[in-house]
Amino acid sequence: MQRIETGRRVFGVVGYKNNGKTTLVVRLVEHLSARGYRVSTIKHAHHAVDIDQPGKDSFRHREAGAVEVVLATARRWALVHELKDEPEPNLEALLAKMAPVDLVLVEGFKRFSQPKIEVHRRERGTPLLARSDPTVLAVASDEPLPDLEVPVFDLDDVEGIAAFVLTHAVPG
Fold first, then answer.
1. Which one of 10, 32, 146, 171 is separated from 93 by 20 to 30 angstroms, measured CA to CA?
2. Looking at residue 84, what DSSP letter applies?
3. What is the pLDDT of residues 79-118, one digit of tens each?
4. Which residues pair with 39 in a beta bridge?
5. What is the CATH number of the domain that holds 155?
6. C-beta atoms surrounding 69 within 10 Å
7. In-domain check, residue 75
8. What predicted TM-score, i.e. pTM, was given to this entire model?
9. Is 145 among the domain residues?
10. pLDDT for 109-158, tens place per residue?
């Protein structure tokens, strides 16, 4: 796997669907932001998502053929890039478009080489990625996993997980 280089620190949160990745990312962002860190996130979705609403002017711009549409308000702005026939951008390309921050948390993108923590819930019964992926440096779980060779954090140990993330995040 190729190391991603973008000049900021990156750490991934991975796991199978409905194991709690988004919940952990939100809790980490809240925790780190409250302590003065500037944190951004990238969320990978496997399904079609449209942040633009049909009938709205920006949607109409895109539907007319615009490659990119910036929607700007007094409180936020969003850039929508229409891929058309282009391949899905890789994580490196997305990171390169982001403003500098202290940390970028990446939810999903299991196959990329940034260090990761896996979110695992016993009730889901999914296999552990940490058993075969050397970039999974720890697991956050609701059950003890004594046979793993990586640290296992309780899902509610946000402070401990945040400290681990900050220690192991790499320039991305």
1. 32
2. T
3. 888 888 889 888 888 998 899 999 999 998 888 889 999 9
4. 103
5. 3.40.50.300
6. 19
7. no
8. 0.87
9. yes
10. 888 889 999 999 999 999 999 999 999 999 999 999 999 999 999 999 99
